[in-house]
C-alpha cells in the first residue's frame, strides 16, 4: 500500500500527472505550518559552544545527502578538526537522545546514522530533539570542535553557523510544489538563504556539482571485495531501499551491469523474505541497505559503497564561514 501511494504521488511530483485541487489545498496548509515552524524555531534557537554545520535538502527523497555528510566529516578531519555528527535516526525505533556504540543496530538507531558511524568513524548521536542530542554528544566527547547535523535543515531550534543544501541534478524540484502536492519541504527560494548548494550529478559551470563514485562491491559475508567492473556483462539483482532507487540502478548500468531492479521504500526494514530470488544470481545493494541485511546475508550478496567528491571551492566556503563565526 505504501509503495502504491508513493508511486501515485511521484507521478504527480515528477511525471507530469495533474495535481488534484485537494492536494494543492493541503500544500498551502503545509506551507503555512512550515513558515510558522521556522519563525518559532529561529526565535527559540539554541546556540551551542561549538559551530554547527547543517546538511539537508528542501525536497523529500534521495539527493545524496548521506555521502555528503560522510565526505564533509572526512574533509573536516583532514583539516585538523574533530567533528561529531547528530541525526534524527529515521527508520529507527529510538526517540533518543542516544549515543551510537559498536552494538548500535539500524532497527533501533536508523540506517543512516549507523552507516555514517561505520564509514566516518566519527562520534554519532541520534534523537528527535536536536539541541538535546547535541548536548549529549558534546558531554560524551568534549574533544569535538564542530558538529555536523545530518538532515537538519528544517530543524530550526538548533542554531546553525553553516547551512549546506543538497539537490539532485536529475529530479531537481519536481513540479515545484510543496508537500503533499509536490516533493518540496520548503519553497525553492529557501536555497537563496543557505551558504552552500551542492548539486548531485551536475556538470554545469555555474553550479557546485559533485559525483558519487562507486567502484567496489563488498561481500556481506565478509569474504572480501571485488571491483564493481567485475560484474560487467552479468545479470544481477539490484536492491535499493533509498529515496531514489533509480539512481542506484543507473550507477550499476553505467558500469556495464544488467540490472533486475528491486526498489523498496526509503528506510525499508528488510527481512529474508524480501530476497526470494532463488536463481543464484548475485545481489548488489546500497551500503545503506546492507547495514540492515548483514545479520541474514548469504554468499553472493554485495554492498556497493559510494563516495562523494565535493568541490574544493565549496569546502573552502564552509571553512571560511566557520572561521567567520569564530569556529
UniProtKB/TrEMBL annotation:
<keyword id="KW-0547">Nucleotide-binding</keyword>
<comment type="pathway">
    <text>Glycolipid biosynthesis; lipid IV(A) biosynthesis; lipid IV(A) from (3R)-3-hydroxytetradecanoyl-[acyl-carrier-protein] and UDP-N-acetyl-alpha-D-glucosamine: step 6/6.</text>
</comment>
<keyword id="KW-0441">Lipid A biosynthesis</keyword>
<keyword id="KW-0067">ATP-binding</keyword>
<dbReference type="Pfam" id="PF02606">
    <property type="entry name" value="LpxK"/>
</dbReference>
<dbReference type="InterPro" id="IPR027417">
    <property type="entry name" value="P-loop_NTPase"/>
</dbReference>
<dbReference type="GO" id="GO:0009029">
    <property type="term" value="F:lipid-A 4'-kinase activity"/>
</dbReference>
<dbReference type="GO" id="GO:0005524">
    <property type="term" value="F:ATP binding"/>
</dbReference>
<dbReference type="InterPro" id="IPR003758">
    <property type="entry name" value="LpxK"/>
</dbReference>
<dbReference type="GO" id="GO:0005886">
    <property type="term" value="C:plasma membrane"/>
</dbReference>
<comment type="function">
    <text>Transfers the gamma-phosphate of ATP to the 4'-position of a tetraacyldisaccharide 1-phosphate intermediate (termed DS-1-P) to form tetraacyldisaccharide 1,4'-bis-phosphate (lipid IVA).</text>
</comment>
<keyword id="KW-0808">Transferase</keyword>
<dbReference type="GO" id="GO:0009244">
    <property type="term" value="P:lipopolysaccharide core region biosynthetic process"/>
</dbReference>
<dbReference type="GO" id="GO:0009245">
    <property type="term" value="P:lipid A biosynthetic process"/>
</dbReference>
<protein>
    <recommendedName>
        <fullName>Tetraacyldisaccharide 4'-kinase</fullName>
        <ecNumber>2.7.1.130</ecNumber>
    </recommendedName>
</protein>
<keyword id="KW-0418">Kinase</keyword>
<feature type="binding site">
    <location>
        <begin position="59"/>
        <end position="66"/>
    </location>
    <ligand>
        <name>ATP</name>
    </ligand>
</feature>
<keyword id="KW-0443">Lipid metabolism</keyword>
<comment type="similarity">
    <text>Belongs to the LpxK family.</text>
</comment>
<keyword id="KW-0444">Lipid biosynthesis</keyword>
